[in-house]
Amino acid sequence: MKNKTRKFIVSLLSFILLISFTACSKGEKVEDKGNSNKVITIKDSTGKDIEIKLPVERVVSLNRQTSEALKILEVDDKVVGTGDTTVKNNPYLGFDNVPDLGKTDKVNIEEIIKLKPEIVFAHTNRNKDVLEEKLEPVGIKVVRIDNYLPEKMNDEMKLLGQIFSKEDRVKEFLDWKKNLESLVEERVKGIEDKDKKSVLALSVGFLNSDGGYRVFPSKSKDGKPGVGEGYATILAGGKDAGDLEWNPSEKSTTILVNDEYVLKNNPEVVTLHGTWLGGYNEENKKAFEDVLNNIKKMSSLEKLDAGKNDEVYIFHTDMLGANKRPIGVLQLAKYLYPEKFKDVEPEQYAKEYFNKWLGTEYKGIWFYSAKDK
User: Pfam families from the xrefs (predicted)?
Assistant: First the structure.
């Protein structure tokens, strides 16, 4: 009797295994619900713990740098609305087909609610508490990340990967980014401090319209790196000609200084930054030439060593201030130390970034040298 029972059990198990193998061979499997109805707790860049129900299908991005990060992670189809001049300044992202919810300080909250997003992404230091007060009572989570401050960018990208289950894509992008950063690090690490070029990073818009100086500091009051445009100087092997410290709680990323301050520090190199000059849709270098000529007429730029030697370089803010920073840093390093980067063409990396990570063609003028005139 025991033998019969044993034979029956063996036969039954064999039958079950056969059925399982057949099902698998036909591509059938038990559905893996994956993240369906899973709840995770994340910590955004303000330190706030937030519960997120997965999968996330509808989001609004009120930060154009976060919008670009979402494009990199290939979850742009989840974006149902943008703000922060995303459509104007980042037209290559393809978000012109979703509602533009306004500038950072004039967000249309009623429209956001109508779109029924699960998450709204916003800067850490803008619209403080207003979004939370209006959106959280109706079940919309507010996640605050910046995606442009040097010391936070990698962690914020990883956070997005966690929210959208795109950890592999994040790792691939960060590895690519690290390889590019290492290229610069290796070539400038041996430069002694006395041989480093002194650089002052300035707002091109303010200088062009007012003749005055607004500086992007390379460091913050909390001892961390400053804003991207300023910190790029350090990454490229230069040294900050100024001694200013940025307050991260301030909305502005620049500090106003007078002529005396700039003339006293007399930088060897000046970098100029803005979103209105250059970029994806710029086709003519004449716009840069006109701006430089105007700046020379209405400011003390030509009294500086940088102005006398045409060591003046214009960068579109996005090429040094956010996800494209490694490319802009490479170009800046080549401007500062051309002999160390003779075999490197930064625009090749820019093309790769647009093609591989944004899925679109590379075009426009993103940086310009006064020596090109």
Answer: Peripla_BP_2
